[in-house]
Amino acid sequence: MVRANGRVKQKDIVDDEGISKERVHHIVTTGLGYRKVSACWVPRQLTVEMKAQRKDMCTQLLLERYNAEGEAFLQRLLTGDESWAQHYDPECKAQSMEYRHKTSPSPRKFKVISST
Hints:
Layout: H1 10-17, H2 21-31, E1 34-37, E2 40-42, H3 48-69, H4 71-76, E3 98-101, E4 108-110
Parallel strand pairs: 2-4
Antiparallel strand pairs: 1-3
């Protein structure tokens, strides 16, 4: 169960297998060599080079579409006022915990920040 779903809870294993919580903990940690880790928060801020690369790629793709489709492509474009939408991920650090093998890297989760 742990190999199939790293976020499985000991209580779920106890309910499915009918063994004690202490035995489940011993099997998972000692027998399988897994430990419970939470995601490491890393910033999502784009560097100047990353922003420039994205801008260049978008410009290139738009020019390719314009060259292929001509004026028909421009007639389908919609423009409007700029609006911002914030993404909210309610998963807290404790909810991101999952079983990982000792040699596995820690999972990473990006912070949600507004871009400028």
